[in-house]
Structures are given as C-alpha cells and as structure tokens.
Design goal:
Elements: E1 12-18, H1 39-53, E2 63-70, H2 78-91, E3 94-104, H3 111-119, E4 124-130, H4 134-139, H5 146-158, E5 162-169, H6 176-188, E6 193-198, H7 206-212, H8 221-237, E7 241-244, E8 247-249, H9 256-262, E9 267-270, E10 275-279, E11 287-292, H10 296-304, E12 310-316, H11 318-329, E13 336-337, H12 338-344, H13 351-367, E14 371-374, E15 380-383, H14 385-389, H15 391-418
Parallel strand pairs: 1-2, 1-9, 2-3, 3-4, 4-5, 5-6
Antiparallel strand pairs: 6-8, 7-8, 10-11, 11-12, 13-15, 14-15
The protein binds S-adenosylmethionine (SAM) and iron/sulfur cluster.
The site of iron/sulfur cluster has 11 residues, from loops.
Length: 423
C-alpha cells in the first residue's frame, strides 16, 4: 500500500488540449466542440503559446510527460502533433524517456493513423472505448460500435505503444453482468492500463436535460456501489490494481502524467481551456493555477495577437496546497506520508505538528474504516477500498481539518517571519 508513487512530484509535465470532436457526446462537459477546425492554425496557436509561456517552465526541468487530451486529439493531423512536440522539445525540454500520451476516439483512427502518431513521437494511447456493447454505445451517443473499439485497441497495440482504454459503467438499467461483460472484453484485449468511470450526470449536458425531463434515470447509489465493487474486484483478479479511484494498472504501468495531478507536480497546460499548475518554487510554497482562454476561436485569435489572456487565474497559498495534496493523494492507493509533506514545506511546519493538527480527523476516518494509518507516528495514511467509495467524505474531513487547524498555524508562522502587517 505504501509503495512509492510512480516518479516524484519534481517532474514537470505538459498538457495539450485539442477542443474539437466529430460529435458532442450527451454526457460530456469537457471543453469540446463539434465544429470545423483548421489543423495547422490550431497547431500554430498552441506552438505560439508554448513559445510564450514555456520559458517560465524551463527551470522545472525537461518535461517527463506530455498528454494530448480533448476533445478528440486523434482528429488532429499527426504531422501537427509532431510540430507541437518539437516546439515542446525546443522551448521547454523533453526527457528522452518521456511518456507521450494521445487520447484516441475509436471512430477517428485506423492502423495507418496510429502509426503516424507514433512516428510523430506518441508512445502511449488512451483509447475511448467506453463499452463493448453496441446498445450501450448508442445510449452514450458514441460515433463508433463495439467492433470499432476492439479494432482500435488492437491497432494501437500493434504499433508497440502502451495502450490504455476508457470504460464507462453504471449506465441506466445496466445489469451487473452487463457491466462485467465490457470489463471481460477489455481484459481480453490486454491493454497496459484501464480507466473505468462511473457515468456521471454533469450539469448543462444533454444527459442532464434528459434527466430533468424525466427521460433518463441515473443509476441509484447502492447499485453503483455494487458495480464499482464488481469492476474493481474483476480487474484486480486480472492483475490491474486500483491505484486511483478510476484508474487500474499492473504496478509500473500507472499513467505518469496523471500522477502529477495527484501529487502536486507542476504542469504547463496549453491549448483552449487547458489548465496549468505552476508552483512558485519546487517546494510547497505557493502556486498559480491558470486556465487558458476556453473558446477555441477566441483562443486562436488571441494567440495570433501574441496575447495569452487567461480565462482565470487562481493564487494558492501554502495552506491551500497542503489541503489540495491531502485531497488528491487520498484518491490514490499510494496515500500520503505526512512527515515527507511537512519536509516539503521547508520548516514552515514541523512533521509532528502536521500530524498533530490532523490526528483527530485521521482517527475518525480510521474508526469509520475509510483510511489506514501506519508509521511510528501514524503519519502514513492511505484509503481503504471503502475509503475509495466514500472519497468525498475522506477529502472533506481532511480539508476541514487543514483549514481549521493547519492554516492558522501557517498564517501565524508567516506573520512571525515577516513581522506584523503595516497598519
Ligand atoms: C476527453 S475524453 C477521451 C477521448 C475522446 N474524446 C473520447 O471520448 O473517445 C475522456 C474520458 O472521460 C470519460 N468521461 C467523460 N465524461 C464522462 C462522464 N460524464 N461520466 C463518466 N465518464 C466520462 C470518458 O471515458 C472519456 O473517454
Ligand atoms: S467524450 Fe470525448 S468524443 Fe465525446 S464529446 Fe467528450 S471529448 Fe468529445
């Protein structure tokens, strides 16, 4: 349980957002648009953003991962993906062993296209299979059937790249057996990683509107909990460990890029609506969270002017960062070592104070069977399978404890260092 998380938070990553899709799926609230696009014009805008914002990223060292997400980046001309990677290499730096992932919708790819992506520098595909049952794919409004999903996974694997696949389960009326059938098909395809999501009804989507009109009934919580248990148990038997709430992989095959998000690693997000997380220093001092302009047309026009207007910027204090880290690390089976976290603050808080501040909340979570505490001072914490199920409760409890106990301590200390504020 307390094996180390794959690579440390020191590694930097780059996220590239491609905001276009063939058709908008009814459940999706990503920044994705079923609109015509110009491959080259969009790549030019992204490259300009890398050139303008990349240098601030350089002190963090060469990127250990790049993630092309969307939207449907598999619609993008592979040659443009190659140009974007060259710009990252030149403007930021890219490790030779970097993980370079591209999300691929099965309705947009064939063998030749996968090969061209690999020639451009991609070495990992995340295939949006969602289900291996045609009827479910119709319910999900997908542009492909089950056979196309199987073909896509096989073709992606044939390139020699690592392949992950996405599944969505917990569809209305789905039986336990039906959910497991897609899992069986996924296992039979021998991917290196599986992301299995429960269907969530996101506000503002076509599915949410259908629910309001009584045309769609979401799966009840109890039934969903059964599905989650079935799916994680079956994947576990096949060697896919549940290392994050929705992520399963044999040890060593975890998604490096995603672990940056969970362990406070820095990443530069480029492209319409991409999120960046840039720490003030390598240590846990403070950080900026920024979203690039969301609307694709406005983003391209902005880039052409050399302006990179953010959609939003948020400044995070040390206390915010600690609270965030508690929340996100407890989404993973690796959990968190509170003493190591305290050390990252470079003496802002002593390891024993960090543990003392959170102890009451931690004990309550242990009593409820949601986490385990190990280590001589009880500073190593990780969620139990039940803790995964009630992750929101674990996160909220720790967040409140951090706000009420840790934040005042950090604020007092920073006043002590900087003296009282001028009257
Ligand atoms: C950006 S999409 C992946 C790539 C590509 N656009 C596709 O759909 O094939 C990321 C993944 O999030 C999952 N997802 C998106 N919205 C969801 C929702 N409302 N509920 C559950 N899973 C969702 C899907 O599995 C999807 O493949
Ligand atoms: S799920 Fe994927 S293909 Fe469907 S609209 Fe969202 S980003 Fe596009």
């Amino acid at each position: 349980m307390f094996s180390c998380a794959p690579r440390g938070p020191g590694d930097a990553g780059v996220y590239v957002h491609f905001p276009y899709c063939t058709r908008k799926c009814p459940y999706c609230d990503f920044n994705s648009h079923a609109a015509a696009f110009d491959d080259r014009a969009y790549a030019d805008a992204v490259i300009q953003e890398i050139e303008a914002r990349g240098p601030a990223h350089v002190p963090l060292g060469p990127a250990g991962s790049v993630y092309f997400g969307g939207g449907t980046p598999s619609l993008w001309d592979p040659a443009e993906i190659g140009r974007v990677l060259s710009a990252i290499r030149a403007g930021i730096g890219l490790r030779d062993d970097a993980e370079v992932t591209l999300e691929a919708n099965p309705g947009t790819v064939d063998e030749g296209r996968f090969e061209r992506f690999v020639e451009s520098g991609v070495n990992r595909f995340s295939v949006g299979a969602q289900s291996f049952r045609d009827q479910e794919l119709v319910t999900l409004g997908r542009i492909h059937g089950a056979n196309a999903a199987r073909r896509a996974v096989r073709a992606a694997k044939a390139t020699g790249a690592r392949v992950s696949l996405d599944l969505i389960y917990g569809l209305p009326g789905q039986s336990r057996d039906a959910a497991l059938q897609s899992v069986e098909d996924a296992i039979a395809l021998e991917p290196s990683h599986i992301s299995a999501y429960t269907l969530t009804i996101e506000p503002g989507t076509a599915l949410a509107r259908a629910e309001e009109r009584g045309r769609f009934r979401p799966t009840e919580d109890d039934r969903m909990a059964e599905h989650i248990q079935d799916v994680s148990e079956r994947l576990g038997r096949a060697g896919f460990l549940r290392y994050e709430i929705s992520s399963y992989a044999p040890p060593g095959q975890e998604a490096l890029h995603n672990t940056l998000y969970w362990f406070g690693g820095p990443y530069l997000g480029v492209g319409a609506g991409a999120h960046s997380f840039l720490p003030l220093s390598r240590r846990l001092a403070g950080a900026e969270r920024r979203e690039s302009l969301r609307n694709p047309e406005a983003y391209i026009a902005d880039a052409a002017r050399g302006a990179f207007t953010p959609e939003s910027i948020e400044h995070l204090t040390q206390a915010d960062l600690i609270a965030d880290r508690l929340w996100t690390a407890m989404r993973t089976r690796f959990g968190l070592d509170l003493e190591a976290l305290a050390e990252e603050t470079e003496d802002a808080i002593a390891p024993e104070s960090m543990i003392a501040c959170l102890s009451e909340a931690l004990d309550r979570l242990v009593e409820r069977g949601l986490i385990v505490r190990l280590g001589s001072r009880g500073g190593q914490i990780a969620p139990t399978p039940m803790g995964f199920l009630y992750n929101d409760e674990v996160g909220r409890t720790l967040l409140l404890a951090a706000r009420d106990r840790l934040a005042p301590l950090l604020a007092a200390r920073s006043n002590h260092h900087h003296g009282p504020a001028p009257a």
